[in-house]
Amino acid sequence: MSALNEEYVETDVGKVQVFRGGVGPPLVYLHSAAGEAVNPTAEALTEHFAVVAPVFPGFGESEGIDTIDDMEDATFHHLDLFDRLGLGAVPVMGLSFGGWMAAELATRYPERVSRMVLVSPVGLYIEGQPVKEIFGRTPAELAEDMFADQSHPMAQMMHMLSEFRGDVGQQIEVPMELVMPIWKSMSATAKLGWDPYLHNPRLRRRLHRVTAPTLILHGAQDTLAPKAISEAYAEEIPDARLVDVDGGAHLVTLERPEEVAQLVTEFIGP
Amino acid sequence: MRFFSFHLMPYSDLPTDYDGPAWVTVPNEFYDPALGSQLYNRYLDELIYAEEVGFDGVCVNEHHQNAYGNMPSPNLIASILARQTSRVRIAVVGNALPLYDPPTRVAEEFAMIDVISGGRLIAGMVVGGGPEYYSFSINPADARERFQEAHDLILRAWTEPGPFEFIGKHFRIRYVNPWPRPMQQPHPEIWIPGAGSLETVEFVARHRYAYMGIPYFHVSVFERMFRMFRDACEAEGYEADPLQQGWLVPIYVAETDEQARREYEEHLWYFVKRLLPGITIQPPGYTSARSLGNILKSSGSFMLNLETWEQVVDGQYAIVGSPETVTDMLIDNLGRLGTGNLLGLFQLGTLPHDLTKKNLTLFAEQVMPKLRAEFPEGQPVIRPSATGQVA
Asked: Is the ipTM of this complex over 0.85?
């Protein structure tokens, strides 16, 4: 039984799935391209916070990706969703793609983000250090970059899925119940992150507008998103510090939930 | 029945120790321009030769950054053919519309080819294969929308007096007024290649264009595909014309069955094992949810998975044999599929020039006349009896 409960919220783009749980001050969790609104870090944080983990349109059961064309639309969607959930100025954390979306919100509407935690963020392009390909490789190849420990259940599942796709399309029944959510997540991510590839060329020069004290967490074993991206966020955001999380690759909130939850709790405070 | 000779213009000399994909990331240091020069000229000769021996048309198509087909601009090749042939239809199958910005470029170039050739162009329009989206960085999530919008713009550019304004979501042109206009009025015949996506089938049926089955599947996949197309036409309130359907298949004719296999097999395997890898990459958002299941289901019967000659023959992935064998196999298959256009790939992989020419000659002299007699133009091609059970 998860500490997070499923709800649906009507927004301007359609019905959106939101997971909520815990009591205390609010904390928003924005998921990555993996769609992990429900994850062990968010669950651990319900001990101290009223966690709100929306599912971005196109992922899971959330509608509305057809009317979201770019990061500007995505930011307006978050603004709209915050209004409907009665969230004023709140702490926002995001993993990878979700971290990028948090930063976009915090540059445009700094008054809505009281504190920010970026975990393995993408969103910036560092010359010579691109984010590795996520759209053109097999799940098994991605798992190698996303997990420090390949025995993690999600890494295991990604290795298994590789047998069902790719060029060698073998004569076996495709498990649509596993393929469909991944296909939906990647399609929605592509809509915002295909070109420019997982970044907004204008974001860096806007980061000085962020007023929220910011904690940036980088998985020490992350081989997908280079640390230079986290360093650039730390450099450009006025009140920011960068912390390495050992034993985690890209999906740190899945792999090191206790450490991440503790760092976030200490940073945001009661 | 109309007969077309389709050429991919493949690169025939990938290093033997290279086993990676032939698409997108295949290192272009493998490309030898001196060999490329010979290949282009030789392949053009083979297309021109098809006219000499009596084909009704020739086909070229567009692919980027790959060794499988070296025609990033099929319009360049078609414009050469417009001058170097005098009778055949020139089918460009097709231009990948979402890659052209603005798409009036397609309206202009197709009109040029049509005018130069004296009205012999067949205008193919295609969404573009998965790999092209990696090679162009065009967002695959926008592919279908861009295709639709580009198609609408091109058709209006050809048929509506200019100048007019076109304000779409992806393309905005304040003055649409292309010169030249196409010679064929109101516009050239339009072909749309497809691999079984429902959206494409319904689109082609709705516009009464021709649907070309993209090859390299087990023949049963084509049977399902063309049945789907005829059903879609019926849903639009008309019966599909056989000329609205085309089947593309590798064909090789030699003096005897045995000789055909002996001469052809290694070249076929080069194609299957060296040039196809990478072609099936599916970028995210490129396929609709309702088509994904269909596509994944057919993926097991894709030619890339073949390991034995028996599988090639069983699935009719390539039609290979003596003139008699090839004639019989084609009569059977065309009757099953109901297509009024046969698009043959007479050169494949590393198949050399002399064998390609012999193939074209034997086919034109000994197979084509029998098929023309069997399937007179204007007559239905589909033969429900040949399929046994029509599901």
From this structure: yes
